[in-house]
């Protein structure tokens, strides 16, 4: 395929993306053993600055509310998911995805258990394991589940909370496997207070944010700051630097022991009087011992029920699942659900993903990881364990390899940040549409060529990639391309690659 044809087909998407602010190449943060602190605590924009609207609305041809919902709750549509959503209807499909425990995902579970056993190993086994194998297998298992799990909303929640409670695996190693299982995956669709408390007791989190270095007389403020700024209240949530300093004293003694288990070391706890968010914790005798852990537990409860937490978590959830710019009314509605249900995540999702909200929401730009997963889901290639490794290479190239974001704020969710890597996104479309190795990743193009006529080929691509809602302009351009070339496998693969590279496929 010559460059002119590609540019002609996707010029609308290129014009949109090339003009946006952002890095030339989006990539994961650098590698290091220490958390890189921002030199100041100035707030980041919330919601993020909105990029210019595309000249052609990617959602203009999205006529089915059920398919709009399926796009939001999944890493990408495929014919089976689209058919399920339409058969169940909006409300029932949402409830289906909100009950992952009732969805048969045994095929994925079996594949992961057979090929990536590290993710189920205990602490002692992980400690003794090869660090590269441990880290790779967690990442591979995550990629495979994102692409092929039937529990799509659950996997989207796992990604959301992994960003919210971000931990760089480079710093904590095998402890991230424990955190992924016992914190993120266990509580991804339970309640926020449960998730917060599990994270606060996670050896991976305590090590990552230097809580293990925090002792009486020399409290480290990293975790105290981030638990308020990034995990609960938000940067504008009403706390002060004094609150950070005092909470760090409350949390002295929270550490890890042995190979990586939570421990409260009373000999390192500050038993003096502290005041956090207007709440005074009286001085106590060192004889109180391990019971002083209750000071930190009490502050976790305070943070979990704080109105600022309800607002902050509701805003982030709306931005991730719905739109970059949720309205004050939408935020207030979800925050009210948080308050009345004790932070029940499923109840909040019902409000976020109401039919009125979803049908009115503009299209969102797929982050690189989302784009790659959506391509896999649309084409459904056969993938071996070795093939997942090659998929990780694609994920790393586009710049969003799981568990590699260094700073505690998690991967950005904005068009501006990710718009600079358009070429790598195009290259991925070429990679997956041409995957033809029986040993690793194999995409079977034959079903797209039966019959091998331009209208039938475009219809098959429309069904697989767009659930029948391909924009008419794109359909016309693809038809022109197929009609001008031999209708063989190479042409069809190129056409699918063009569809994956189109501006329409970059959004959900």
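^ structure tokens above, recovered residues below v
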């Amino acid at each position: 395929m010559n460059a002119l044809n590609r540019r002609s087909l996707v010029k609308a998407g290129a014009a949109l993306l090339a003009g946006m602010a952002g890095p030339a190449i989006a990539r994961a943060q650098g590698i290091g053993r220490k958390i890189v602190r921002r030199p100041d605590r100035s707030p980041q924009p919330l919601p993020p600055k909105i990029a210019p609207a595309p000249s052609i609305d990617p959602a203009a041809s999205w006529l089915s509310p059920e398919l709009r919902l399926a796009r939001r709750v999944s890493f990408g549509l495929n014919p089976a998911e689209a058919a399920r959503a339409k058969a169940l209807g909006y409300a029932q499909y949402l409830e289906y995805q909100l009950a992952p425990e009732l969805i048969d995902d045994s095929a994925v579970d079996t594949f992961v258990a057979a090929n990536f056993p590290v993710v189920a190993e205990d602490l002692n086994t992980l400690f003794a394991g090869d660090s590269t194998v441990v880290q790779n297998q967690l990442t591979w298992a995550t990629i495979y589940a994102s692409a092929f799990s039937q529990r799509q909303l659950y996997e989207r929640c796992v990604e959301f909370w992994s960003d919210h409670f971000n931990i760089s695996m480079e710093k904590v190693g095998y402890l991230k496997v424990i955190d992924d299982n016992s914190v993120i995956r266990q509580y991804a669709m339970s309640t926020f207070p449960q998730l917060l408390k599990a994270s606060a007791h996670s050896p991976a989190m305590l090590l990552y944010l230097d809580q293990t270095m925090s002792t009486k007389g020399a409290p480290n403020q990293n975790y105290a700051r981030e638990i308020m700024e990034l995990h609960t209240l938000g940067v504008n949530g009403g706390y002060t630097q004094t609150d950070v300093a005092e909470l760090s004293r409350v949390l002295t003694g929270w550490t890890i022991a042995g190979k990586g288990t939570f421990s409260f070391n009373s000999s390192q706890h500050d038993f003096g009087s502290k005041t956090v968010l207007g709440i005074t914790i009286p001085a106590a005798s060192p004889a109180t011992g391990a019971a002083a852990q209750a000071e930190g537990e009490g502050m976790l409860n305070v943070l979990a029920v704080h109105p600022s937490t309800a607002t902050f978590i509701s805003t982030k959830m709306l931005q991730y699942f719905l739109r970059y710019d949720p309205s004050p009314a939408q935020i207030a509605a979800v925050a009210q659900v948080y308050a009345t249900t004790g932070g029940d995540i499923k109840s909040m999702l019902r409000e976020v993903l109401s039919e009125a909200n979803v049908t009115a929401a503009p299209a969102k730009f797929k982050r690189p990881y989302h784009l790659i997963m959506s391509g896999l889901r649309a084409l459904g290639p056969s993938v071996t364990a070795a093939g997942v490794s090659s998929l990780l290479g694609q994920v790393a190239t586009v710049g969003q390899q799981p568990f590699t974001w260094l700073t505690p704020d998690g991967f950005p969710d904005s068009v501006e940040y990710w718009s600079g890597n358009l070429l790598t996104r195009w290259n991925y479309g070429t990679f997956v549409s041409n995957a033809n190795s029986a040993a690793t990743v194999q995409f079977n193009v034959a079903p797209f060529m039966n019959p091998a006529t331009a209208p039938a080929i475009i219809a098959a691509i429309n069904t697989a990639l767009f659930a029948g809602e391909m924009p008419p302009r794109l359909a016309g351009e693809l038809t022109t391309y197929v009609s001008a070339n031999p209708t063989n496998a190479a042409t069809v693969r190129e056409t699918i690659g063009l569809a994956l590279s189109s501006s329409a496929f970059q959004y959900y």
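The CA atoms of residues 108 and 185 lie 15 Å apart.
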